[in-house]
Amino acid sequence: MEDFPVNRKIIHVDMDAFYASVEQLDNPELRGKAVAVGGGSERGVVSAASYEARKFGVRSAMAGGLARKLCPELIFVKTRFERYREISAQIREVFYEYTDLVEPLSLDEAYLDVTQNKKGNPSASLIAKEIRAKIKDKTGLNASAGISINKFIAKVASDINKPNGQKTIGPEEVIAFLEDLDIRKFYGVGKVTAEKMYQLGIFTGKDLKTKSIEFLNEKFGKSGAYYYHVVRGIHTSQVKPDRIRKSLGAERTFSENISSEIFMIERLENIAEEIERRMKKSDVAGKTVTLKIKYSDFTLKTRSKTLPYYIRSKEVILETARELLFQEKMENSVRLLGITLANLNTEERDQKVSEDKVIAVQLKFDF
């Protein structure tokens, strides 16, 4: 067997029909029906399609007119990127419970390196299962996952048991898996490249593996070396976090709008308690408290206050959130409340403590 790196445990998480699933989640009347997000106008293009629509051949990037011909009963809905970003942020918070090595590819997919993780769990497959369950519990949406030794194989594997499934390709399975894989399934091989490979007699990974790196460079230019290595299970690209965590928050959407300030304080207390728990778990603290209020008419308002010291105790978080709540008169009944703690001390170590409000933190993340 040829050598390939086996020292990483990579998960690729991919939400199932994300935009369309969010629309079906928020509008129960759309559930079980063929839904296209975007593409409703004559020149419109479909941004996403539900699995019910995909059965008719409707796909993302397809012209709306063609989609309508393929599926006459197709229901078009407008894109709501603010809503998609909101849920994407909730999903990423789940990822950060396990590792800070998170590389988002888009709102609905990301790579996670869990070789060393915050749970101390040696099984990447079990971690992926937990993450998918938490996403379902937190958002009501399904996610699929691929688990393997590098990003390339994890990405390919995540598509195998979609929707709402996962696939693990262990180190000892990599070579056989790649040799049997249809060339169209190789991440990075598009329709045009696949047709060119067919003309060269390359239909599977095994066929690709017979070609020399010189041959592939000649036929495919700079991509030749990439194809040569990935078919041998070699892909050394690391999971690259797009940011150091700069904030941590939690929010609650209510089943019924609330107008009582007493009820709002009760909800904020629960949120503050959740933030305290997560701040302690991540071993960080922050200075800036932001209160998020979404009214029943979907108007969104935020209010912030920066303190002269680091905090993470629920009492201080709640005290500051209460102050922000009463800063202005309520405009309407409220459907969502949230608190975010930002300006974190992720770049400062060994802070001196003073009373229980000032939190000394030295990050101790296991990578």
From TrEMBL:
Q: Does the keyword RNA-binding apply?
A: no
**E.C. number:** 2.7.7.7
Per its record, the protein catalyses: DNA(n) + a 2'-deoxyribonucleoside 5'-triphosphate = DNA(n+1) + diphosphate
- Chief place where the protein resides: cytoplasm
Q: Which ranges does the record mark as transmembrane?
A: none
Where does the chain bind Mg(2+)? 14, 108
Q: Where in the cell is it found?
A: Cytoplasm
Name a single GO biological process. Answer: SOS response
Record keywords: Cell division included?
no
* Coiled coil location: none
Per the record, the domain of life is Bacteria
Write out the GO cellular component annotations.
cytosol
Any note on cofactor binding?
A: Binds 2 magnesium ions per subunit.
Name any one GO molecular function. Answer: DNA-directed DNA polymerase activity
UniProt-annotated site: Substrate discrimination, residues? 19
What is annotated as the active site? 109
Described purpose of this protein according to its UniProt entry = Poorly processive, error-prone DNA polymerase involved in untargeted mutagenesis. Copies undamaged DNA at stalled replication forks, which arise in vivo from mismatched or misaligned primer ends. These misaligned primers can be extended by PolIV. Exhibits no 3'-5' exonuclease (proofreading) activity. May be involved in translesional synthesis, in conjunction with the beta clamp from PolIII.
Subunit-structure text = Monomer.
Protein name (record): DNA polymerase IV
Question: Gene name?
Answer: dinB
